[in-house]
Amino acid sequence: MSHITVPVSASPSSKQASQLNDSSQPDERLQEEETYIQDEWGGSPAPAANDRVPGYLIGSIGAVGSLAFLGILTETLMTVLFPELMREFGVSTATVQWVTTIYLLVVAATMPISGFLTRRFTLKTVFVAAVTFAVVGSLVMLVSVQFWLVLVARVLQGIGSGIATPLMMNIILEQAPRTKIGKLMGIGSLVITVAPAIGPTVGGADCRIE
Fold first, then answer.
1. Binning pLDDT at 50, 70 and 90, where does residue 25 land?
2. For residue 73, how far is the Cα from the chain centroid?
3. What are the Cα distances from residue 103, in Å, to 3, 29, 158?
4. Is residue 71 within 8 Å of residue 161, measured between CB atoms?
5. Which domains does the chain possess?
């Protein structure tokens, strides 16, 4: 009597269990990603309703960005004014270059300490200090009758610009919704890159008007 072998297939319960295991893997990955975000950012991902950029934040970024824009604009604008400054103050080419050199040195020395300033003081206090340095430097520049006063004015303006430029990025990273950080960082970078591009044009137009 011959025996007929019937292939044994997986029971329905085992198939369902395997399907449940496969379908649960994406959920586990999603939970792991949410846990990673919570560990990195210190909280759960913000809901879509909170992704709107507040009006006060737009005003803050615009104010600080305008100050950074003007500071970088004057950096490239002054290079076109070298002949006028040499004629006005009677200085040589090597001396008049200190107008931009000392400005860049002060900006480079101020930017690294902006992180300490934002931790030590409030963002509003740091912004007011930057505006104060920029305004006082501009007033000194207006009343300068000697070349060394021009250099003092450029030092004050460099401090203001060195504080304002990283402060704008700091405000975006700390205050903006996470989904809008990339967009706002792009706008902030656009402000920084457009200013040196139009600086020589504005300086040349100023010379023609005079």
1. low
2. 16
3. 98, 51, 5
4. yes
5. 54-209 (1.20.1250.20)
